[in-house]
Amino acid sequence: MGEVVGEEVLEAETHIWNHIFSFINFMALKCVVELDIPDAIARHGHRPMPFSHHVSALKLHPHNSQYLHRSRRILDHYGFFTKYKNGKEEEAYSLTNSSRLLFNHNHSSLSPLLLSLLDSFLLQPWQLLSAWFYSHDRIPFKMAHGKQFWEHTASKPQDGDTFNAAMANDVRLVTSVLLGQYKNMFVGVKSLVDVGGGIGILARVIAEAFLQTQCVVLDLLHVLTNLEESHNLIYPEGEMFQSIPLPMYFY
């Protein structure tokens, strides 16, 4: 095996450092969402929002607010914000298509998905990944929490509600494009089952748009509790690994 020498050492070190510190990117994104920055820029209006206005609008602590520009610089680089600066004027920021999908009070926002997937209960199994390869547990999640994922969310409704709400928002976003541009693919479909469909956002939208289609959402009881059915939308309790109804289409 050849020895790494010269500039190859620095290239290899840079490659490793990029991976070591890549967690900063998604943690900076989480921070910006939790601080409500995309919403603050949207409330500012059509003009770019000066950096000093961020501090006042978000009521940040004066001592720590001086470091906000560091996370902003990372996200500017990755296309979440557009930075403007004319001459000696203060830096100002506007939204991009990506940051417009991160509003905190929008039913099609991806911010709940971001916050859910970066929650400690979902990050903890990744910390045990190497130990899991030596264990008898089938999945790292069970090793971390002593239960399968769906058992955990059933016993801790807050985690389950957060995850289901995040998935529902993602479905709303995809469905808006699906039925806007590919609506014809559902014409003539008599029935479909959304397997593991959560709270049934996708099936409900399809059922409302295509009254001739019988829609079934199959999921666990604690997920489907209190969901309202209609003449062409039902929520039977079911375990997808045991049996699934046989319609024309599955999702």
Automatic annotation (TrEMBL):
Transmembrane stretches, start-end: none
SUPFAM superfamilies from the UniProt entry: S-adenosyl-L-methionine-dependent methyltransferases, Winged helix' DNA-binding domain
Gene name in the database record: LOC111023437
Domain O-methyltransferase C-terminal: 126-245
Species per Swiss-Prot/TrEMBL record: Momordica charantia (Bitter gourd)
Pfam families on file: Dimerisation, Methyltransf_2
Protein name (database record): Trans-resveratrol di-O-methyltransferase-like
Signal sequence, renumbered to the chain: none
InterPro entries recorded: COMT-like, COMT_C, COMT_dimerisation, SAM-dependent_MTases_sf, WH-like_DNA-bd_sf, WH_DNA-bd_sf
BP term (GO), one: methylation
Organism phylogeny: Eukaryota, Viridiplantae, Streptophyta, Embryophyta, Tracheophyta
Assigned keywords, A-Z: Methyltransferase, S-adenosyl-L-methionine, Transferase
Record-annotated O-methyltransferase dimerisation domain positions: 17-103
PANTHER family: O-METHYLTRANSFERASE (PTHR11746)
MF-aspect GO terms: O-methyltransferase activity; protein dimerization activity
